[in-house]
Design brief:
13 strands, alpha+beta, four-stranded mixed beta sheet
C-alpha cells in the first residue's frame, strides 16, 4: 500500500545563481544566432548552437559549436553577454557586467554530426535527432500549472523576490538566491508547507539572518496557498548568517548543472541532458519540451490525474525509438491506448516537434531561470509547450 502521509521537497535557484547565470548566457547565444541568422536571410531550420558557459570571479568563458550567419562577431556576443549580466543585476566588484573578462571559444559544428541531422544529407533523408538519449515529460493536478507543488512554489518564492528586487525597490536583496519547499501530502494530496528554506544574497552587510527573514517572509506568505504556512512550519532563512558575496564571485557556475530545478524538482524522472545553450535539433531540449506538452494536455483533458512520458532517440534517426506512458494504471484509457493516440496526433520527429511547437526562433533566454515548465505561454512564442491546445485531438483519438 502506498504511503498516505509523507513530506516531499524540491528546490529552486534564482536567475543570479552562478549556474543560472551560465544558463542564461548560453541561451542568449542561441537567441542571438536565431535572430541574426534569420535577419541575414538564413533559414532558421539551418541554425545550430551548442554553447556551454563557465562563470567565475569577473570571468566568463563560452565554448561550443555553432552554425549561423558569419555576421555575428565576438563584439556582438560580448554585448549580449554584458546586457544579460546587467539585467540579472550584477554590479559588484567580483562580478560586474561592465568589467567582466569574456572569452569566446565557439567554432563550427562537426560535419560528422551535421550529416546525421540535416535533412536530405548523410545516411537518412529525413532530419535526424541531434543526439541519442531519453527524455521525460510529466504533469499532475497538484497546482494550476499542472506541476508538482514543491517545485512550483519554490520557483514562485524566488520569482516574487526577484520582482521585489528589480521592480519594487528592495535594493537590499541581491541577485543570488536558493529556495526549498517541503510539502506535506495527505492521501496523495498536497496540504501544507512542512518546511521552507531560503538563502538569499543581501547587499546590506549589516543585515542579520533575522533582518533578512523580516524582509522576505511577507513575500513568501503572499505566494504560498492560504493556510499552508502554520505554526508547525519549520523556517530556515539564511541559516549560515551573512550572504553578501554572491553569484560567480562566490562560486563558479556552469551551464546545465541545475537540470532538476529546470524540470520537476525530482518528482519525476529526468533524462540527464541539459536544455540551455542548445538549439531545438538537440532532442535533449525539444523532445523534453514535447514530452511535457503531451503530458500537460493529457492531464488537462482529464485522461489521467498524473502522467509520466518517456521518449527515446538515436542520433541521426528521425522517429523516436520508443514512446512510453505511465499513468499508474488509473487513467480513463490504458497506457497502451494513450501511446497510440500520441503518435496519431503529433509527429515526434525532430522536425515535427520544431514545427508543431514553433521552436525555430529566439525564445530561449527567458527559459533559463525559474523552470522550463509550468510557465505561461507568451505572445512571442515562448513556452509554447505549455499550451493545452491538443486536448480535443487527444480525446478524439481515444
Amino acid at each position: 500500500m502506498s504511503r498516505q502521509i509523507f513530506d516531499f521537497t524540491s528546490e529552486s535557484v534564482s536567475e543570479g545563481h552562478p549556474d543560472k547565470v551560465s544558463d542564461r548566457i548560453s541561451d542568449e547565444i542561441v537567441d542571438l544566432f536565431f535572430t541574426e541568422s534569420i535577419k541575414d536571410g538564413m533559414s532558421p531550420w539551418d541554425v545550430r548552437v551548442a554553447a556551454e558557459t563557465l562563470t567565475t570571479t569577473n570571468k566568463v568563458v563560452i565554448a561550443g559549436e555553432t552554425r549561423g550567419t558569419d555576421k555575428i562577431t565576438h563584439d556582438m556576443i560580448k554585448d549580449r553577454v554584458r546586457a544579460a549580466i546587467k539585467d540579472i543585476g550584477y554590479e559588484q566588484d567580483g562580478f560586474h557586467w561592465n568589467t567582466a573578462d569574456i572569452d569566446i571559444l565557439l567554432h563550427a559544428q562537426s560535419v560528422d554530426i551535421a550529416q546525421g541531422v540535416d535533412q536530405g544529407t548523410g545516411m537518412h533523408e529525413e532530419e535526424g535527432a541531434g543526439d541519442q538519449g531519453i527524455m521525460f515529460g510529466y504533469a499532475c493536478q497538484e497546482t494550476p500549472s499542472l506541476m508538482p507543488a514543491p517545485v512550483h512554489y519554490s520557483h514562485k518564492i524566488l520569482q516574487r523576490l526577484a520582482r521585489a528586487r528589480k521592480e519594487e525597490g528592495k535594493t537590499q536583496l541581491g541577485p543570488d538566491a536558493k529556495s526549498q519547499v517541503t510539502v506535506r501530502y495527505v492521501d496523495g494530496v498536497p496540504v501544507g508547507a512542512a518546511a521552507i528554506v531560503l538563502s538569499t544574497q543581501h547587499l546590506d552587510a549589516s543585515m542579520t539572518s533575522a533582518d533578512v527573514a523580516d524582509l522576505v517572509k511577507p513575500y513568501i506568505y503572499e505566494v504560498m496557498p492560504e493556510g499552508w504556512i502554520t505554526d508547525k512550519t519549520i523556517w530556515h532563512i539564511n541559516p549560515t548568517g551573512k550572504f553578501v558575496i554572491g553569484g560567480p564571485d562566490g562560486d563558479s557556475g556552469l551551464t546545465g548543472r541545475k537540470i532538476i530545478v529546470d524540470t520537476y524538482g525530482g518528482a519525476a524522472p529526468h533524462g540527464g541532458g541539459a536544455f540551455s545553450g542548445k538549439d531545438p535539433t538537440k532532442v535533449d531540449r525539444s523532445a523534453a519540451y514535447v514530452s511535457r506538452y503531451l503530458a500537460k494536455n493529457i492531464v488537462a483533458a482529464g485522461i489521467a490525474e498524473w502522467v509520466n512520458i518517456q521518449l527515446s532517440y538515436a542520433i541521426g534517426v528521425a522517429e523516436p525509438t520508443s514512446v512510453y506512458v505511465d499513468m499508474g494504471g488509473k487513467g480513463e484509457a490504458s497506457e497502451d491506448e494513450v501511446e497510440k493516440a500520441i503518435r496519431s496526433v503529433i509527429s515526434l520527429t525532430p522536425r515535427g516537434i520544431r514545427s508543431h511547437l514553433d521552436l525555430n526562433q529566439a525564445i530561449y533566454a527567458r527559459t533559463a531561470a525559474y523552470g522550463h515548465f509550468g510557465r505561461t505561454p507568451d505572445d512571442q512564442g515562448g513556452f509554447s509547450w505549455e499550451k493545452t491546445d491538443l486536448v480535443d485531438a487527444l480525446k478524439a483519438a481515444l
